[in-house]
Amino acid sequence: MLDPLASLGRAGLSVLASLGRAHLLLANILAGLPSLLIRPRLLLAQLYGIGVLSLLIIVVSGLFVGMVLSLQGHYVLSQFGAAESLGVMVAASLVRELGPVVTALLFAGRAGSALTAEIGLMKATEQLSGLEMMAVDPIKRVLTPRFFGGLISMPLLAAMFSAVGVLGGWFVGVGLLGVDDGAFWGQMQNKIDFEEDVINGVIKSLVFGLVVTWIALYEGYDATPTSAGVSRATTRTVVQSALAVLGVDFILTALMFGG
Amino acid sequence: MARIRLSEILVGAFMALGFVALFFLAMRVSNLSTATTGEGYTLKAHFDNIGSLRVRAPVSMAGVRLGRVEAIEFDQATYQAVVTLRIAERYDQIPSDTFANIFTAGLLGEQYIGLDPGGSPDMLTDGDRIEFTQSALVLEQMIGQFLLSKAEDGGE
């Protein structure tokens, strides 16, 4: 009779324990920063795997998102005779929201899942235990470079997404729909504030980079060391990163622009 | 060795591209290149009603932007709005009897401050107050006056 109650309690405790392990892992990862600074070459390899290889999908998506924004925005704005504000609309939505958020979602799918699968497989094939046997801390050697690789790549990728998106919006708005070139850029520069919009967007993308990389590394490190376990962990990374990014985005937006 | 060199070059290009994108957002998309904060001098103007004027709204003369609204405060003694304007350094020939109006850009656009130059030989300097001001036109008040005058016409 008390079985349902017990299973509810077990579920609650396991969630708490998992949260606790995630935070301990983050603390251990951050503690590995000094040894990473001694061997920056480890970071280089991760910047290549996480940043450079994500470049193509980010740039192409940014271009198309900017072009679609411009088409849709022009349709609505021209009904109010405000088609000149197209630049503001495209730039504000990209810099404030779509740049960081869509980049983070793509980043979770492209880089986050790869990180989880890689570390989960390292665990399943006992490479992590092997490192430990050789008195090498696997967290410092394997996880810390990946964490900072993600943390550095994400804002750069988001900035490229926004910049390419604005150019795509300019191409459609000015090139195809005939919005005035001067008004497009002029109104944009008038309305988009460097600190209020651009810097807040960069802060957002930094936070998303931390959240996505952290979830990916934790899921990989905590995965059940079997093929099924790694597969489940990879799925969880993508789902939880997406939910976390959208949730955190609401909180950050409310803090930055809500007041 | 060649592989490491190649990945070094690619990472370098990636980071450079990222910073170029940030620079593009800063200079071309946002107002960093035209920002006047911290430079130039400030003027004050008292308005009975500023409508929906906001901080950072443009201040212009003859349609050319000279500066921005830096701060909006409320004076409890006179029940007026005190608007601080920051004007760019190079526009230092604004006569002391200049008239400050609050205009609206377009029918539904944002409000800005338009300056009409006076004829005085004295120029405004840092911290001076613009004496002559015209409040914002509030649409509801205009409609109210219009209806009132219509009603008076109808009564005769």
TrEMBL record, chain A:
Lineage: superkingdom: Bacteria
Keywords (A to Z) from UniProt: Cell inner membrane, Cell membrane, Membrane, Transmembrane, Transmembrane helix, Transport
Topology in membrane: Multi-pass membrane protein
Membrane-crossing residue ranges in chain numbering: 20-38, 50-71, 156-177, 198-218, 238-257
Pfam families, per database record: MlaE
Annotated localization: Cell inner membrane
Single GO term (MF): phospholipid transporter activity
GO CC annotation: ATP-binding cassette (ABC) transporter complex
InterPro entries (alphabetical): ABC_MlaE_roteobac, MlaE_Permease, Permease_MalE
Function: Part of the ABC transporter complex MlaFEDB, which is involved in a phospholipid transport pathway that maintains lipid asymmetry in the outer membrane by retrograde trafficking of phospholipids from the outer membrane to the inner membrane. Probably responsible for the translocation of the substrate across the membrane.
Record-given protein name: Intermembrane phospholipid transport system permease protein MlaE
Primary localization class, coarse: membrane
Annotated family: Belongs to the MlaE permease family.
Description of how the protein assembles with itself and partners: The complex is composed of two ATP-binding proteins (MlaF), two transmembrane proteins (MlaE), two cytoplasmic solute-binding proteins (MlaB) and six periplasmic solute-binding proteins (MlaD).
Protein species of origin: Halochromatium salexigens
From TrEMBL, chain B:
Keywords on record: Membrane, Transmembrane, Transmembrane helix
Transmembrane regions listed in the UniProt entry: 9-27
Gene Ontology molecular function terms on file: phospholipid binding; phospholipid transporter activity
Pfam families recorded: MlaD
All residue ranges annotated as the Mce/MlaD domain in the record: 40-118
InterPro entries, per the entry: ABC_MlaD, Mce/MlaD, MlaD_Phospholipid_Transporter
The keyword Transmembrane helix is assigned to this record: yes
Name of this protein: Outer membrane lipid asymmetry maintenance protein MlaD
Species this protein is from: Halochromatium salexigens (Chromatium salexigens)
